[in-house]
Design brief:
- It is a single chain.
- The longest helix has 32 residues.
- This protein has 2 domains: 75 residues, 3-Layer(aba) Sandwich (Glutaredoxin); 126 residues, Glutathione S-transferase Yfyf (Class Pi), Chain A, domain 2 (Up-down Bundle).
- Strand 3 and strand 4 form a beta hairpin.
- The mean pLDDT is 97.
- The chain is of the alpha+beta class.
- Helix 1 packs parallel to helix 3 and helix 4 packs antiparallel against helix 5.
- It is built from 9 helices and 4 strands, in the order E-H-E-H-E-E-H-H-H-H-H-H-H.
- The chain is globular and about 50 Å long.
- This is Glutathione S-transferase 10.
């Protein structure tokens, strides 16, 4: 039986997992979970994933939550080489650091606005929340002054994870190409990737439309 990836296209972490699955040609079944309809709170889902999140990866008795853990697992099991997740200790440390950055800074600042808007009807982000996103763009710009991509000079799973998030953030705070030129160049380069066009573009259009309709910006 093929592994399953439980996902919602509008979810940035789920899109990151979908893109990495595509890169590695992982033979799996994708299962839609509608968070707005609270399908993630059904008993059968909670039994597998008490965190009630997407994505979730299931392969027989092996169940893994958290998109970053899933990206690492998929790359180590299905990757043809280590380019997306280098084995060299220092290079891997840089990738890990940027994965943590995506989780603790980028995605957290997106979720702090998107979740209340979509699930609770909170229409007006605070000025601090908007400034926090601009600060995150500044962090990215500094990172890209050191390496072409987020962790190294080639694309890694850190880029894919962060790209899924940033491509959603820009619907809340636009990315000024003059103020953040390196980040803008990186974003456009990631948009060109075939896995991005296949698995990120449709979902980011969904969440972008929701945010534009729900938020007073």
């Amino acid at each position: 039986m093929a592994p399953k990836l439980y996902k919602m296209d509008a979810s940035p972490p789920a899109r990151a997992a979908m893109m990495v699955c595509d890169v590695h040609n992982v033979p799996l079944e994708m299962v839609d979970v509608n968070l707005i309809e609270k399908e993630h709170l059904k008993p059968e889902y909670l039994k597998k994933n008490p965190l009630h999140t997407v994505p979730m990866f299931e392969d027989g008795d092996f169940i893994l939550q958290d998109s970053h853990a899933i990206l690492i697992y998929l790359t180590e099991v299905y990757g043809k080489d280590d380019s997306l997740y280098p084995k060299e200790t220092k290079q891997r440390a840089f990738v890990n650091q940027k994965l943590f950055f995506n989780n603790s800074i980028l995605f957290t600042r997106l979720r702090n606005i998107a979740y209340p808007a979509i699930m609770e009807g909170v229409r007006k982000p605070s000025e601090k929340q908007l400034n926090d996103i601009k600060e995150a763009y500044g962090f990215l710009e500094e990172f890209f002054s050191r390496t072409k991509y987020l962790a190294t000079n080639h694309i890694t799973i850190a880029d894919i994870a962060a790209f899924a998030t940033v491509s959603s953030l820009i619907y809340i705070v636009s990315l000024d190409s003059k103020k953040y030129p390196r980040t803008h160049t990186w974003l456009k380069e990631m948009e060109k990737q075939s896995y991005s066009q296949k698995y990120n573009a449709p979902g980011v259009t969904q969440i972008g439309g929701m945010l534009q309709n729900l938020l007073d910006l």
